[in-house]
Amino acid sequence: MERINSKLFSWASILDDKTREQALTTARLSIIYPHLALMPDAHLGLGATVGSVIPTLGAVIPAAVGVDIGCGMIAVRTHYAVKDLRVMYPALRDDHLRYLEKWGLIQSVAGRYSFADLTLLKHAASEIDKGVTLPALLRTLDAQRQGQLAFDFQPARSERVPARVVSLPVAGPPAPTLFPGPHAQEMQAASHALAAKYFLEGAELDDGEDRDLTAAATAYRRAALFDPLLVPAVVNLANIYYERDELVEAEALYEKAIRIDRDCFEAYFNLGNIHHDLGRYSEALAAYGEALTINPAYPEAHFYLAVTLEKLGRSPEARPHWKEYRRLAPDGEFVALAAEFSDN
């Protein structure tokens, strides 16, 4: 391999002067990243060097694909680890990446970021280098993203863990039955016992590092079959749909849980997450507000309510919730972000 310069590497078997000059001209383009590479068969082409690999950032060069298209050409989606991003954009810290992801602006897969995220990350690093504060940067990037979503109607889904129900409520007096008889109460008690059994099985399968979501969903369905009013089973089944990105099914189940129990905090909070993911910010505000009415001490609800208010441009209303998140979760993952927003 010959390193011609920092932007041009060559594995060419024979490299004539005209081919070298053509490759150097392309390599000088600002959109080339990290460098242009010449393969063993590199030779002079019409507009672009044949036998070259031309990675670009945020742009496509038509002349590089329009002449020999179909002749050994391939489009490849590349992914970048955090260590790669540190080299590319030294201004970006790990917490910046977490905040951008929490805001729904980028999305990692197994700790790696797609080529599509690089344009936004490059812009973010440039703004941070200029001294732009993180709150201002997040607001600007989100406003730009929302403008794009008006055209493509495909909001990015942010990653978050839904609130789970981990215990059953204390059993109340038996409900009236449509078929009264000498054994009605015994049958009802048996149904409740089976529902509790299947719920606890589902909760166990739905916990830990080796979670079995398919088996857990089956157990929750059985629990709801024996007791259709068992809200914990409905909510946790909805959570599994949410994690699978099956939002329509999850939304219907959360709404069912709310119809059964108007004081179900988990259903309101998780429904707010769905509205937020789908860009229904007004509905998200209402759901988060209901959740906080039921449980005002849940820090994540304050966090996402504040994020939603910021996205609606209602920063003064968001500030008390940033502060409350800091108070309730002084060691929380996003306390530094909350501090920046509550102080700006």
Could you outline the blueprint of secondary structure elements for this entry?
Elements: E1 2-5, E2 8-10, H1 17-27, E3 36-43, E4 50-53, E5 79-81, H2 82-88, H3 94-102, E6 108-109, E7 112-114, H4 115-129, H5 134-152, H6 184-205, H7 213-226, H8 231-243, H9 247-260, H10 265-277, H11 281-294, H12 299-311, H13 315-328, H14 335-342
Parallel strand pairs: 2-3
Antiparallel strand pairs: 1-2, 3-4, 5-7, 6-7
Helix pairs in contact: 6-7, 7-8, 8-9, 9-10, 10-11, 11-12, 12-13, 13-14
General description of the model:
α6 runs antiparallel to α7, α8 runs antiparallel to α9 and α13 runs antiparallel to α14. It is built from 14 helices and seven strands. The protein has three domains: 63 residues, no CATH class; 74 residues, Orthogonal Bundle (Multidrug-efflux Transporter Regulator, Chain: A, Domain 2); 113 residues, Tetratricopeptide repeat domain (Serine Threonine Protein Phosphatase 5, Tetratricopeptide repeat), CATH 1.25.40.10. The strands form two sheets. A four-stranded mixed sheet has the order 1-2-3-4, covered by helices on one side. A three-stranded antiparallel sheet has the order 5-7-6. With 344 residues, the chain is α+β, with helices and mostly antiparallel strands.
Strand order of the largest sheet: 1-2-3-4
Count the strands? 7
Protein structure class: alpha+beta
Task: From the alpha carbons, calculate the radius of gyration and give it in angstroms.
Answer: 27 Å
Order of helices and strands: EEHEEEHHEEHHHHHHHHHHH
Annotation field: number of helices:
14
Question: Going by CATH, what is the homologous superfamily of the largest domain?
Answer: Tetratricopeptide repeat domain
Q: Note the gap between the termini.
A: 52 Å
CATH architecture of the largest domain: Alpha Horseshoe
CA-based shape: elongated
Mean pLDDT: 82
* Fraction of helical residues: 40-55%
> Uncertain segments of ≥5 residues (pLDDT<50)?
148-158
What's the number of domains? 3
Q: Which fold name fills CATH's third level, the topology of the largest domain?
A: Serine Threonine Protein Phosphatase 5, Tetratricopeptide repeat
- The CATH C-level name of the largest domain is Mainly Alpha
How is the main sheet built?
A: 4 strands, mixed
Strand content: 5-15%
